[in-house]
Amino acid sequence: MMSKQIPDIVVGRLPQYLRSLQRMAREGRTVTSSQELGERLGISAAQIRKDLSQFGEFGKQGTGYNISYLIEQLQKILHVDHEWDVAVIGAGDIGSAVARYKGFINRGFKVRMIFDNDPNKIGQTIGDFVVQDYAKLKEKISEAGIKIAMIAVPANLAQEVANQLVEAGVKAILNYAPISINVPAGVRVQYIDPSIHLQRMTYYLE
Amino acid sequence: MMSKQIPDIVVGRLPQYLRSLQRMAREGRTVTSSQELGERLGISAAQIRKDLSQFGEFGKQGTGYNISYLIEQLQKILHVDHEWDVAVIGAGDIGSAVARYKGFINRGFKVRMIFDNDPNKIGQTIGDFVVQDYAKLKEKISEAGIKIAMIAVPANLAQEVANQLVEAGVKAILNYAPISINVPAGVRVQYIDPSIHLQRMTYYLE
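Above: the input entities. Below: the structure tokens describing the complete assembly.
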């Protein structure tokens, strides 16, 4: 059932469904509906049913979705039924906040190491981590088999860092630097740039 | 020319174009093409031409786009030809990093105030700001006429904070809390949740 090509826009909604379902589970809930999920997310119930149906049959007409079962299935589909080790590059404000971030717990990710090239930062402690020397990034990341990294360096350094990460075997990069980076086929990049999100809203203001 | 409804997906790409153009300008460039912009962004040249053509005529066939002119036009379209005051709610790791973030400079935003409800944080200094009492949020924000806010509080408090912001007159919310929030029509929300971005990539891994 996973052989057909699912549109990336559909893939992009699955983590939102998963997050909402996990929240419901924490609230002690056991069953939900596409209607309820839709109201929480601002997505139509029909869209949610259509998205989920691309991956299989997860609910019965009239009885709704079993929350813990659907969580399990979505975790498998998104490959977060186990925890991924993550490296953070850049120990400035953003990198430090991300390294200490509690929001990765139960979401499938665990920060394992943080790097910087600033001699004043190398060796310092951030949360549970000692900041490591950027010069050793490639060696340490490939040794640990880390496939996921977050870039939190100034924009002008982001491409060079990305190149190093790709050489180290990283396959997924979350880039906090406000610049587009180029990576070879087979490597994925997602971006977090608050100005981009804000500008998308100011378009509608005034 | 602004009267027709532009799809939000198109609006969402404009900030990316603007960011790339501003970078080119900083590199001393004066003219670019949809091809070059497309290569930098991983978006097709045809898509870029089509998106921009929805807003007017910004380039001549064969001579490309004048960078500073196109920057100016995009800033007007996105309403960032002036600076918006922004409030940050939550003075934890993320809120503090966002309040100190240099990446808003020249992007149309300036953090003006930060709030928290923790007596140990109220009165403390973060960058250029003294953390203000959350109890005064509504009063301070409506007094200052602030229309944009960033929520960086724990998930279980985000909806309550959003309600207060809406009552204070805020029209655009960037939510860093990993939870969907409901706002009335006329108020926009965008989300930053690194786990969501990462899960969108792990789908393709393994």
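Note for the figure: DSSP finds eight helices and eleven strands in chain A.
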